[in-house]
Amino acid sequence: MKFSSVAIVGTGSFGTAVSTLLAPKLGQVILIGRNAEIAKSINESHRNPQYLSSVGLAENVTACTELDVVKDHSLIVFAVPTGATRDCAEMIKGIGISKDTVILSCAKGIEKSTGERMSEILSGIFPENPVAVLSGPNHAEEMAIGQATCAVIGSEDMSVAESLQDLFTLPFFRPYTSNDLAGIELGGAIKNVYAIAAGISHGLGLGDNAVAALVTRALAEMSRLGTALGGKIETFAGLSGVGDLIVTCFSEHSRNHRVGLALGKGQTLEEAIQSLGMVAEGVPNTLSIHEAARKAGVRTPIIDAVYSILYENQPAARAMQDLLSRDTRTECE
Fold first, then answer.
1. What domains are defined for the chain?
2. Is 160 helix (H, G, I), strand (E, B) or coil?
């Protein structure tokens, strides 16, 4: 399976970063977004004026606001927030694409209303098309400037995963493959909640010991919930599990960590989101993941604590103290 061009749906930071990865490998890379000014700037100055504005884009990267151009490409990358994935997919279905077109999802989250993962949404809307996911410790800010990065590409069809692996492999970008879509997507979604918790802990000044303990127990909790929801345990020890958990809980690039940091320093959720100015997937993810955990009957004290802060007006310091004062247990639980 070979790709000659790609349509990237979404002109945000991740879509822009993906365009920098694929431009050296493909003849045409087109970014599709809703903002005509962003598209105009990309076409005229080869820069995205709103996201990763310091990064120059290659000559073969163009942009438009017309979604129907997707039908001309053998690969469609979904780089929109999770809440927009279904609507975008439904619109593309109405346009009509070849059944051979590969669809790659880069969003990290599960749908609030249904609890479905992005690949489940896309497979339901495009049942004849190959669907894959890309995840891992992949901050767009570092990918776009060629800093060393690893990722995992998942598909039920390993020939599709391997074709995408070949496409995305660069001297600084190393993708691995997997057939565990559930584990990959759940790891990428659940870690967003823990990044908020880590940010809150940093904002409260709890110290490195506390944050290290939080992240360690978060991995245990993620693995417990993720396997209950269909993922493989080994996936959570990989790039989309512990790898993504580490980077998003400690990096200054992490939007979810920055929201948590603001909450820990006393801002309201509304103030934290407004000051961020971008989508932090962990905020809506907390709702959907908390609900999924309750339905699955899985014990998730860290997710519960973040949920109480975001949606039950629990003071951050009190929620963190409640975590420490729970009944003691063995570490393997």
1. 5-179 (3.40.50.720), 183-324 (1.10.1040.10)
2. helix
